[in-house]
Every structure is written in C-alpha cells, then in structure tokens.
Design brief:
Layout: H1 4-10, H2 12-22, H3 27-33, E1 58-61, H4 63-66, H5 72-84, H6 87-90, E2 94-96, H7 122-132, E3 136-142, H8 158-168, E4 172-176, H9 197-211, E5 216-219, E6 237-239, H10 248-258, E7 270-272, H11 285-297, E8 302-304, H12 313-319, H13 322-328, E9 337-342, E10 345-351, E11 357-363, E12 369-374, E13 386-390, E14 396-399, E15 402-407, E16 412-418, E17 427-429, E18 432-433, E19 438-441, E20 454-456, E21 466-468, E22 474-478, E23 481-487, E24 498-501, E25 511-513, E26 519-521, E27 527-530, E28 541-544, E29 554-555
Parallel strand pairs: 1-2, 1-8, 2-3, 3-4, 4-5, 5-6, 6-7
Antiparallel strand pairs: 9-10, 10-11, 11-16, 12-15, 13-14, 13-16, 17-21, 18-19, 18-29, 19-20, 21-22, 22-23, 23-24, 25-26, 27-28
Helix pairs in contact: 5-7, 8-9, 11-12, 11-13
Length: about 550
C-alpha cells in the first residue's frame, strides 16, 4: 500500500496544487491517455544492465531542504560548493533537480519547458555548468499525468521527454508516482484507471535506453507493488518506503522497513530508503551520524538533502567520512543484514570485498547502552585475534572475538572487522533469481531427498534461506531438516536437475558463488539456471552451459 499520510504531511502545497489542476484536466486528454495504459504495453527486461550505479549512487537533491524553491542559481551554487568542500572528492557525483523546475504546461510541440524565470539558461545550460565541474546533473519527472506538485507528468510522453533529457545532458532521472492515471488522486487511485507501476516505469526505461545516453533511473514509487521484486529489471534503485522527514522517528521507521530487503540489492540495483536528512530539522548530530551509518551499512544511495553551501562543519564531517563511505561503496555490493535485535539494541553486519566485515551497533533507545556481539556472529572465524577499526573515530584495537561498544542514545558505532575468514566469502539468506525477481525455493518445505528445487515468490520462510558454507555447500533448512543443493546423480551434462539431498560433502554438492552473479557447480562448471528463462512460480532449476543470460544471475 502507498503511504498517503506521510506524503500528505510532507507535501501539502503539492496536494492543493494537484487538486486544483485535476479539475482543469480536459476529458479529451484523459480519453487519449487511456489506451497508453493497457497492461502489457511494456515488458520489463530481466535486468537493466545499463552499466550505471555499480555502487550506490551519491549526490544531492534539493527537495528536502528547498521543496519547490528550486532554481538554476541554487543548483549551480550547490554544485560549486560540492566541488570545493570535499564532497565531490569523497564520491558525490550527482546534483539533482527535484519537482517544480518546469512551466505549468507543455510547449506547442508537446515538449517540457524549463521555467525561464527559474532556469534562465535552461536545463542544458545548467547541465553544462555542472559538467564543467566534473559533476553530473539529475532531473525529476513523474510516471503519471502530473508531477507531485501538479506540473506536467511524463505518462504518455515518455519518448519525447527522454529525448529532451538526453538533449539537455541529463545524467539521472528521479521518476515519481503521483497521479498515476486518469481519475487518480495525488498518491492513490480508488476510482481511476491506473496501469501497474512496472508497466509505466518500464516505458520510461525503454525510452531512455533508446536515446543512447546513459541515464541512471531512480524509481520513486514509495515501495508499492513490492517494487524490490521487479525493480532490478527497470531501474538502478527503487524507493522502498514513503517519504522521509527530518525526524528520528521517520528515520527509524524507514530503517526497519528497508533493512529486511537485503536479498534484492546488488551492483546496479539498490534498495533506496530515501534521501538523507543529515543536517536537517530536529535531527541531532548523533542521529545524523546514525542515519549516515545505517544507510551506508544497507548499501543505500547517499543523496544529501541539506543546504550544502551553508552546511555546518559537523554536517560536512558526517557527509564526507570516507571510512563510512567506503562501506557503502564497497564493490562486493552486499547490503548489510540484521545479526541481532534485542530491546532496541541492533547489530548489523555487511561483508566487504576484501574479506572484512562492517559492523553497525545501533542503539534505538533513549538511554546509553552497551551493545555486544562476536566475530563468529558476524561471520568471522579462524583467527586468534581480529582487528577493529572504529569508522567514526579512526581508533584501532584488537579482540579475540568479543565485539562491544558503549553507544549513546540514538547513536551508532561502526566497526570494520579484519582477520580470519569470512566477510566477502561468507554469504547467507535468500538466493534471488535476478531475472525473475523470485527466490530459490524448496517446494512445499519438503524433506524428500531428490526433490528438484524451483523459484517462488520471496517470502522469508526457512525453505528459502540458504547458507554458502566454507566448504562451498549451499545448505537449507527445509521442514526442520538441513539439506544440501545437489547436482542430481553426479551428472555433469547440461540439463542436470538441481535437487536437495542429504549433505555428504561430495563434489556434486559444492558450488561457487561468483562475482559476476552466477552460481556454478564445482564438479561440472555449469551454471545454476532457471529452465526456459521462465519467471513463473514453480519454474524448475537445472544446470546449463554458462551463457551470461539473466536466468543465470543470482543474488545471495
């Protein structure tokens, strides 16, 4: 379901503007748009594959701090500040324009018109300036009849709008979800005609691709329609919740929603818990550091949303902490997961490419508390001692296994743990078929050895929770019994069934989880494959010659 209460509180001006404009929309326009909304008009690709956002995108967006008060001057001033204050060198690349940048109606040629009072040099001139600093420009539109502030939406105009963006030199598109069809309201459609978001977003994906210009596509549909299950085929990131606001309670709620979705994130396709509120509203410096820590631990896009040109020293220090940013930008591309959560004391672990593990100790409560975990709990083994680096203070220490810190109320301690084995080589959780957006599944939680595994809608049940062990087995607890993924009868030919079997440490139960997204049999070298490139529940899994197709891409 959408989050109308949060969005209504966040954007009251937009609601009034939209309601007024909605009464003026001609019936003829609605009639013309209806045929464009037919389900199935756009078939989503199995994976986007545009080569962008191999690590989570970093940049700035004006909405949180400025709302509709966007201008060319603001964007240029912000870009220059980022260029000079260390943000650009820390990895921030995009300077993004949000809503309200255009005129209230399209031009006579049907194209969007930048507001000449706000953008006297147009979007092209603004982009040229931003590019001259070595940065990239982002823009905003909506997969509906109107934007969220009541300006012309892109629904039915995807091709011409994408062409405009490309001609102007746009590098990033934030694509919202308001007024999603004829008769629809701001962020709901109880009595209107609304195509599925997947269809509407895929149309813009294809229009952008047709321009030949690389444009990062950020889906902003507020977590509706389980976007995380299909977003990888459409965009580079997708919002998982309603809008954030500059309060601890909002940040905490969004964290709890987003942290559960780790299996769906990976290079080129990220869960997006919304823009950062670091430096805004009632957030204390401690709470701002928690938000930045948690977003980085969750491999989220880092999109600053404060007044950059006038940011305080503490705000800039938080936004440019390169040790924390390195966790967010780690090339392994794993989103951190919750190791434990007890009475508001949370432990998260994120495996890193060099074998280290980033640990976040988050104190949700209103009092200082000691949070403790262990090297074994975060996936580290095999060493007499482990190195600890505090990512906020830079302090280093060692431990024989206990990992502990005294954490202030609403605060987060981040530690990088080195030594032993684990980290980037230790993985566990659902195994998501990227092309289908479904999870590797033991049918009906059976314990019958020899049952061929399948894909099914991801559901967090035990029969979809897999562990890649140090001995290269893929184990699963099905029906209360631990079983292993197995190449049937030691066969090595393409078409061999992938089954479950009693774990026996034989070579036909050994699997490599590769950095290119494939899972290969150690015995045969064949790839784990969804038969027939099916995306349907119940599609069976076999082994096949590796071919680079999306039905052989997996995220563990």
């Amino acid at each position: 379901m959408p989050h109308p209460d949060r969005r209504a509180l966040r954007r009251p001006a937009r609601s009034r503007l939209r309601r007024a404009l909605a009464h003026l929309l001609p019936a003829l326009l609605l009639a013309l748009v209806v045929p464009l909304l037919a389900p199935g008009a756009a078939t989503p690709a199995a994976a986007l594959g545009n080569g962008l956002a191999t690590t989570p995108q970093m940049g700035f967006n004006d909405w949180n701090a400025y709302g509709c008060s966007v201008s060319e001057s603001l964007i240029k001033t912000t870009a220059l500040a980022m260029h000079n204050n260390g943000m650009q060198s820390a990895g921030y690349a995009y300077v993004n324009i949000d809503d309200c940048w255009m005129t209230r109606s399209r031009g006579s040629d049907g194209r969007l018109v930048p507001d000449p009072a706000k953008f006297p040099d147009g979007i092209k001139g603004t982009a040229d300036y931003v590019h001259s600093l070595g940065l990239k420009l982002g823009i905003y539109e909506d997969a509906g009849l109107q934007t969220c502030a009541g300006y012309p939406g892109s629904l039915g105009h995807e091709t011409t709008d994408a062409q405009s963006f490309a001609a102007w030199g746009v590098d990033y598109l934030k694509y919202d979800n308001c007024y999603a069809g004829p008769g629809c309201a701001l962020n709901s459609c109880p009595n209107g005609t609304k195509a599925p978001a997947q269809t509407r977003y895929a149309t813009m994906r294809d229009a952008l691709a047709a321009t030949g210009r690389p444009v990062l596509l950020s889906l902003c549909n507020w977590g509706e329609e389980n976007v995380w299950t299909w977003g990888a085929g459409i965009g580079n990131s997708w919002r998982t919740t309603g809008d954030i606001n500059a309060s601890y309670s909002s940040m905490l709620s969004i964290f709890h929603s987003n942290v559960k979705l780790a299996p769906y994130a990976g290079p080129g396709h990220w869960n997006d818990p919304d823009m950062l509120e670091v430096g805004n509203g009632s957030l204390s410096d401690t709470e701002s550091r928690s938000e930045f820590s948690l977003w980085s631990e969750m491999a989220a896009p880092l999109i600053a949303g404060t007044n950059i040109a006038s940011a305080s020293a503490n705000t800039l220090s938080t936004l440019t902490n390169t040790r924390v940013i390195a966790v967010d930008q780690d090339p392994l591309g794993k989103q951190g997961t919750m190791v434990s959560s007890t009475n508001g004391l949370d432990v998260l672990a994120k495996p890193l490419a060099n074998g280290d593990v980033s640990v976040a100790l988050f104190n949700e409560t209103g009092s200082t508390a000691t949070i403790t975990t262990s090297a074994a709990a975060i996936g580290k083994t095999g060493a007499a001692s482990y190195g600890l680096t505090d990512l906020w203070t830079g302090a280093t220490s060692t431990t024989t296994g206990t990992i502990s810190a005294t954490v202030p109320a609403h605060g987060t301690t981040m530690l990088r743990v080195s030594g032993g084995t684990g980290g980037g080589t230790a993985t566990g959780g659902p195994v998501r078929a990227v092309g289908a957006g479904k999870c590797l599944d033991v049918p009906n939680s059976t314990t019958t050895a020899g049952t061929q595994v399948q894909i099914w809608d991801c559901n967090d049940q035990a029969n979809q929770q897999w562990t890649h062990t140090a001995s290269n087995q893929l184990t699963v607890s099905s029906g209360g019994t631990q079983l292993c993924l197995d190449a049937y009868d030691n066969q090595t030919a393409p078409g061999t069934k992938a089954i479950i079997w009693t774990c026996n440490n034989q070579v036909n139960q050994q699997w490599r989880v590769n950095t290119d997204g494939t899972i290969t049999s150690v015995q045969s070298g064949l790839c784990l494959d969804v038969t027939g490139r099916s995306t349907a529940n119940g599609a069976l899994i076999d082994l096949w010659t590796c071919n680079g197709q999306s039905n052989q891409q997996w995220a563990l």
